Every structure is written in structure tokens, then in C-alpha cells.
Amino acid sequence: MQPLSILCHSLRDIDTYTTGFPRGDGQGHADIFRAVKHCLPGPYTFILTASKELPKQCVRYGTTTAKYASRKNVGIRMPDDAICQAILEKMDAPLISTRSPKENEWMIDPVVIADIYGPEGLDFVVNGGIRMADPSTVVDMTGSSPKIIRQGKGPKLHWMVAEDDDESAFHDDDLIPSAT
């Protein structure tokens, strides 16, 4: 089964369905939340610990490795895509999404989906035309440092550690200090 992500319209949605981003404590420790605010909405998926508000079905499925299978984590996105933003704003609720298709992977036409499932099987279909979208950069926020586990469209920011980097390369002073 494919990993699931939650598409959110606001940081408030993220705080509802996860335990949120690590925040500074006013004692000079870095405030990852403030750093993340500068890149959202954007081409990033952040893996965060799910809150009890997130239905269990969203964290039970989609885990592809033993490392993530035992945890209750979820990918969170605030896409910068205009169509996604419009849908999220109109729905006034987060949406569940699967991963981006891989290169040369076939995608079904929205008209065919509507014909197959009919009105009883779909709430709506969006036909945004032919669109080329690069996959998001996936950043695991559940460890001691924000670690990129898939490089995608979003660039590696100075406060992120690449998966093959030494985690000791991450320093609190790479982030925006918390307000005192």
C-alpha cells in the first residue's frame, strides 16, 4: 500500500492532526516551527507524529519500511499548487493523498475515473488538465534533526540534514532562534 499524506490548508490543520513541529523553549534552543513557516506552503512533505485526532486508518497503512511501520507518523503537506490550495480552502478540511506517481508510471484520466465509478462512488473529480508535477522533498521531523529521506522539488535548506549526512552536522544555531 502507498504511503498516505494529509494535505492541509493551514498550520492550524497541521497542529490538529499531529503533535506539531518542535518549538523553541526560550532558552536558546532552536525553533523548527518558525523555520518551517518560511517554506510552507511549498514542495515539502514533513513526517510528524500523528495526534489522536487523526483516524487510525491514516497511520496504520502506507508504511513501507520496518523503521516507520511501528511508529504512528504521518506525512503532512501544505502544497503551493493553486488548484490544491483552492480545493483545500473550499473544503475547509484536510484531504488524504497518496504519493506522486513515479516517472513513466501511468495515471488514469479523470474522465475515465468518473465513468468507472459514477456519481455514487465519487464526491468530485478535478480535471486540472495535463500537469507535470515534481515529487515533494520528504523531511522526517520525528528524530533529533530534520532529515531528508527523499530529495524532491524542495531544495535542501540549511537546517535540514540529508539522509547520508552525519547528524552531528545539524546545529541548533542553524535555525531561527526562539523569541525570549
TrEMBL record:
Residue ranges occupied by any YrdC-like domain in the UniProt entry: 1-154
GO molecular function terms attached to this record: double-stranded RNA binding
One Pfam family, short name: Sua5_yciO_yrdC
Superkingdom classification of source: Eukaryota
Protein name: Threonylcarbamoyl-AMP synthase
Organism of derivation: Populus alba x Populus x berolinensis
